């Protein structure tokens, strides 16, 4: 996957005089911030929590009213959640027509990153089963929509953000992507203890970085989805778990990718291949003689 394209980024490598930098700021910042703020509301509204049919039951879902950037509907059964101490995370799947226009590699990167983020979010509250376990709860997840990130708009955003300091970036309207996903936690005997239907688009003024990858925004939003799922499935008052220095999520890849952070600082662009996990590869079994 070609995530980084040097075309359109040569401005980063030119040294600007103070006066030129000041002029650039005066041009880029007002125009982009005004345009972005004017379209932020419509960008939020475009996220859709359409039910895909993946969950075992949708009848008890209720919309959450305490979320701003995402649309969320969820269900929690405290009595069923309380006794669950261990969770097996099933591999995330794709449902619906999500795959239109995306390569097999891009689909795999998205599903693996959801697995990784779910494990990180849940490992502080549950034991993570390394394999299916009849005594463990079963977490099922699916991505139901991936809205592609626009590479041309992202290049322009990266150049603009070079001149606009601050923790929030500005994106070219119409260039942002998004993600919709669903998850449920089933008890060992198959009852639905909790469920979530979630959708969110990257904002034109926000913390998601522009990306030249079509899945750049969706990849960044997997962490937000995992946090909502963890909040929904964790029993009230459950203390944080001590994993005794061992990472139960090691098989999903490292928790921190310094190379991705460095690349983002230098280019202003998010690169999924440098920021996500790389699942551990199993040793091939020897061929029978």
Provide structural commentary.
33% of the residues lie in helices and 18% in strands. The chain has helices at 18-45, 78-81, 104-122, 151-162, 216-233, 258-267, 272-275, and strands at 62-63, 70-76, 86-89, 93-94, 127-128, 137-147, 169-170, 178-186, 192-201, 205-206. It is α/β, with parallel strands linked by helices and 289 residues long. It is built from seven helices and ten strands. The radius of gyration is 21 Å and the shape is globular. The strands form two sheets. Strands 1, 2, 3, 4, 5, 6, 8 and 9 form an eight-stranded mixed β-sheet that branches. A two-stranded antiparallel sheet has the order 7-10. Helix 3 packs parallel to helix 5. It starts with 17 loop residues before the first helix and ends in a 14-residue tail after the last helix.
User: Which secondary-structure class do the elements indicate?
Assistant: alpha/beta
**Compute the gyration radius: what is it?**
21 Å
Poorly predicted runs are 1-45, 158-163, 282-286
Strand content: 15-25%
Helix count equals 7
Keywords:
alpha/beta; two-stranded antiparallel ribbon; 18% strand; 289 residues; disordered N terminus; 10 strands; eight-stranded mixed β-sheet
Helix and strand topology:
Elements: H1 18-45, E1 62-63, E2 70-76, H2 78-81, E3 86-89, E4 93-94, H3 104-122, E5 127-128, E6 137-147, H4 151-162, E7 169-170, E8 178-186, E9 192-201, E10 205-206, H5 216-233, H6 258-267, H7 272-275
Brief digest:
The chain is built from seven helices and ten strands. It has 289 residues and is α/β, with parallel strands linked by helices.
């Amino acid at each position: 996957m070609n995530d980084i394209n040097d075309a359109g980024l040569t401005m980063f490598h030119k040294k600007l005089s103070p006066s030129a930098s000041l002029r650039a700021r005066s041009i880029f910042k007002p125009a982009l911030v005004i345009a972005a703020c004017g379209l932020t509301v419509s960008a939020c509204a475009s996220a859709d929590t359409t039910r895909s049919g993946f969950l075992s039951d949708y009848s008890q879902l209720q919309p959450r009213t305490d979320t701003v950037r995402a649309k969320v509907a969820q269900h929690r059964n405290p009595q069923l959640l309380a006794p669950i101490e261990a969770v097996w995370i099933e591999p995330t799947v794709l449902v619906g027509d999500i795959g239109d226009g995306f390569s097999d590699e891009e689909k795999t990167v998205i599903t693996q990153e959801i697995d990784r983020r779910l494990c990180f979010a849940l490992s502080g509250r549950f034991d993570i089963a390394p394999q299916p376990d009849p005594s463990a709860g079963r977490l099922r997840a699916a991505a139901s929509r991936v809205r592609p990130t626009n590479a041309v708009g992202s290049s322009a955003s990266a150049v603009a953000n070079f001149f606009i300091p601050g923790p929030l970036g500005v994106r070219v309207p119409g260039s942002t992507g998004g993600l919709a996903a669903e998850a449920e936690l089933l008890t060992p005997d198959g009852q639905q203890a909790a469920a979530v239907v979630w959708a969110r688009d990257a904002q034109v003024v926000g913390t998601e970085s522009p990306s030249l990858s079509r899945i750049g925004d969706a990849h960044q939003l997997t962490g937000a989805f995992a946090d909502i799922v963890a909040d929904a499935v964790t029993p009230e008052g459950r203390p944080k778990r001590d994993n005794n220095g061992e990472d139960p999520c090691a098989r999903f890849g490292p928790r921190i990718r310094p190379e991705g952070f460095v690349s983002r600082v230098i280019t202003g662009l998010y690169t999924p291949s440098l920021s996500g996990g790389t699942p551990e590869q199993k040793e091939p079994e020897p061929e029978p003689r």
